[in-house]
Amino acid sequence: MPDGAVASPVAGRMEEPCDQGSITPEARAFSRDRVVDRSFSLAGHLSKSLGVAAAIAVLGGWLAWGAAWWMWLAVPVFWLVANVVEWLIHYYPMHRPLLPRVLYRNHALVHHRAFAGADQEIHERCELSVVMMPWYTLLFVFASASPIAVLAGWIGGPGLAGVFLLSAVAYFLFYEVVHTVHHLPQASLRRSWWGRRRVLASMRANHHLHHQLERMTEVNFNVTFGLADRLLGTYERPARGRA
């Protein structure tokens, strides 16, 4: 919903929009080593991100305490809304130089250039520093979605607003897991039952097509299920055999 845990020290030299008209040989040859944080700690990253997610979940649980049973039936609807929000954030601030510009720098200028072409997989754990979202991205996502929580509260009271917050936290964590899996080595995935599922292979292929510099501003903005992509006309089926 997002990606790249470090602000690139070379971002100042990469301020041009990363669209089809600005792809240069230098951009294609962008070295992942230039932006990988060698001091990256997966445990430290998870403690911050999950800490923020837990705080939002606690607020959601407090609001949802005692919610009517029918309010929980709205969870699939909220996930559909989250799918559209995922598309909007990915399409606009992550791929267009809008405020907050750090999302554009970390995602389009760093993450996409670090994982361009055929090589979409991490080779070292520290490369997760340019795959997983920084903890503060979660704050931006929920600030963007707060009008939906307010609307849910207006319609169904605090209970429905709480159900929305819990649904949104669950969707964000799902997004992060799925996006990380998209960049894990295929050899590792083949060793697990879920890693060999056809639906996961299809989602990976969609995301890897989006990562091609020529297509990244045009197609497949859903990292998870491509519902909003199909609804908004940005879905493109990958070539057979792409993973």
Q: What's the order of the H and E elements?
A: HHHHHHHHH
DSSP strand count: 0
- Low-pLDDT stretches are 4-29
Helix and strand composition category: mainly alpha
Please compute the radius of gyration using only Cα atoms. Answer: 18 Å
What average pLDDT do the residues reach?
Answer: 88
The best one-word shape is globular
User: Separation of termini?
Assistant: 20 Å
Measured by DSSP, the beta-strand proportion falls in under 5%
Task: Supply the number of helical segments.
Answer: 9
> What share of the residues lie within helices?
40-55%
Task: Tag the structure with descriptive keywords.
single chain, globular, mainly alpha, 243 residues
Report on this structure.
This protein is an all-alpha fold. Helix content is 53%, strand content 0%. The chain is built from nine helices and no strands. The chain has helices spanning 25-28, 42-64, 75-91, 101-114, 135-156, 158-182, 186-190, 198-210, 227-232. α2 (42-64) packs parallel to α5 and α5 (135-156) packs antiparallel against α6 (158-182). Residues 4-29 have low confidence and may be disordered.
